[in-house]
Specification:
Keywords: Signal. With 150 residues, the protein is mainly beta. It has one domain: Porin, CATH 2.40.160. Helices cover 10% and strands 49% of the residues. The chain contains one helix and eight strands. The protein has an eight-stranded antiparallel beta barrel with strand order 1-2-3-4-5-6-7-8. Strand 5 and strand 6 form a beta hairpin. It starts with a helix and ends in a 15-residue tail after the last strand.
């Protein structure tokens, strides 16, 4: 009988456990180097478990397409060598498409936290040519909205 009560209490406790997950959205742009000056928008969304203080998932979406590209967190590197309080870092995430590594995203914060110091360097696994996307600012940017499937 006691075994059943302990088991029931453990199951109830597990069912009542909840995690607070924070969703953060950031927007980046790149102007193509060709004469047309076409703007490519990159929307980045990450989910953070607030209790664990850990990223639990992330993805990117381009130019309001409906395709969601999953990313896997790879590493965090503090890049402040002289003054660790500046908050500069480099976060690396791996792009997965068709169950294969398709590229790498490096999210970089430089310049002591100034907005102009935030950018993403994307490198395709195919051609290894890096492409830079610059941070646009706050996530209340009206052009920075995820497109969902209908």
């Amino acid at each position: 009988m006691i075994k059943h009560i302990v088991l029931a209490a453990a199951m109830f406790g597990a069912a009542a456990a909840r995690a607070e997950i924070l969703a953060e959205t950031e927007c980046y742009v790149r102007v193509t180097p060709s004469n047309d000056g076409k703007i490519v928008r990159l929307i980045f969304r990450r989910y953070v478990d607030m209790e664990l203080k850990k990223e639990v998932g992330s993805f990117v979406q381009y130019n309001h397409t409906k395709e969601i590209i999953p990313l896997v967190f790879s590493r965090h590197l503090d890049t402040d060598t002289d003054s660790p309080d500046l908050g500069n870092y480099e976060d690396t995430r791996i792009e997965i498409l068709g169950n294969r590594v398709a590229g790498e995203y490096k999210f970089i914060q430089t310049g002591a936290g100034h907005r102009q110091g935030r950018y993403v360097r994307y490198t395709s696994a195919k051609n290894r040519k890096p492409v830079i996307f610059h941070h646009t600012g706050s996530d209340d940017d009206t052009s920075c909205k995820l497109t969902t499937k209908n």
